[in-house]
Specification:
Elements (H helix, E strand, L loop, with lengths): L4 H15 L3 H4 L8 H28 L10 H32 L8 H12 L6 H14 L15 H10 L4 H29 L6
Length: about 210
């Protein structure tokens, strides 16, 4: 069988993050002091949550067959599509959470979440995020903003969309996903708890 080198490298990078989950990433963000650092935090943490939960779930479900994905272009394409759709929802959740938290705590109240979100997604097009997925999620995010409550969002199940995206987009048979739903949703909730804890500690020096 023909090996997909790009796919192998991508999965390998994700596995490294799965095996060494958070300590390495934490060292890259000791402080969030300005908008650029906030955007980097949102992008990197969203990628972390996406990769560790998606690849972790696949690894758990597939067991010894996990490495077979290296030689299956169709499966790799499916995984890649899943990754970008989950990532887009994760960025949306963390963008809205971050700006809601900052607004509620009188740290920042004049930043457009649409601008932050679209900037992050546009940048990811250079990393291979398909333009049609970017456009779809920009439109979805615009709809989300109609019901966005700046002062309350961060307290009201802020990461439910990315959790549902992980469940919906994971390339696992539906009959198996039904059995796994609670475990899958709990896994992403636990990853977001790490991010939220880190965010609250690192945001103290933020200046508008």
């Amino acid at each position: 069988m023909k090996l997909n080198l790009k796919g192998i490298l991508e999965v390998f990078e994700a596995i490294k993050e799965y095996v060494f989950p958070y300590e390495k990433l934490q060292k890259r963000f000791n402080r969030i002091r300005n908008l650029q650092e906030l955007e980097n935090f949102i992008k990197e943490r969203s990628a972390f949550v996406t990769q560790t939960t998606l690849y972790g779930y696949l690894k758990t479900r597939m067991g010894l067959k996990y490495t077979m994905m290296f030689s299956d272009d169709i499966f790799l394409t499916s995984v890649n599509k899943s990754k970008w759709n989950i990532f887009a929802e994760a960025v949306g959740d963390l963008t809205l959470y971050s700006l809601s938290y900052l607004s509620a705590n009188n740290i920042l109240n004049n930043l457009d979440p649409k601008e932050v979100y679209e900037k992050i997604l546009d940048f990811e097009e250079t990393n291979g995020m398909p333009s049609e997925i970017i456009m779809k999620h920009k439109n979805n995010f615009q709809e989300r903003l109609k019901d966005y409550q700046y002062l309350n969002y961060y307290k009201d199940d802020p990461f439910k969309n990315s959790g549902q995206a992980l469940y919906n987009w994971s390339p696992i048979a539906d009959e198996l996903k039904v059995l796994d739903k609670e475990i899958v949703l709990n896994s992403i909730k636990n990853k977001w708890k790490l991010v939220v804890s880190d965010f609250s500690k690192n945001i103290k020096e933020f200046k508008n």
